[in-house]
Design a protein that fits this description.
The chain has about 90 residues and is of the alpha+beta class. It contains three helices and two strands.
């Protein structure tokens, strides 16, 4: 795989951080949240997810992507952070 080639496989376990007041917004829009995460991760290249610094940038950018989707749908940006409990790429 070349350095800038897209990933062929990614598997991750994700935890979303928010405050109690906005938890219901996330839960009510979980299909949108999952779609935003899948679309975001699908757009990443191998270089963008390899190594600790790249994964940290992916984590931060992922929170922005999910908040943008939720902002468009609900008018709020409830995601404070995205945490990866596992992250496997091939």
């Amino acid at each position: 795989m070349s350095e800038n080639a897209g990933l062929s496989y990614i598997k991750t376990d994700i935890t979303l951080r928010t405050n109690e007041e906005q938890q219901a917004i996330i839960e009510a829009n979980m299909p949108l949240v999952k779609d935003a995460i899948v679309m975001f991760l699908s757009s990443r290249t191998n270089d963008q997810v390899t190594g600790a610094i790249a994964r940290e940038a992916t984590r931060a950018a992922g929170a922005v992507a999910v908040n943008e989707a939720l902002q468009a749908e609900t008018g709020t940006s409830p995601i404070q952070d995205i945490l990866f409990s596992s992250f496997v790429t091939q």
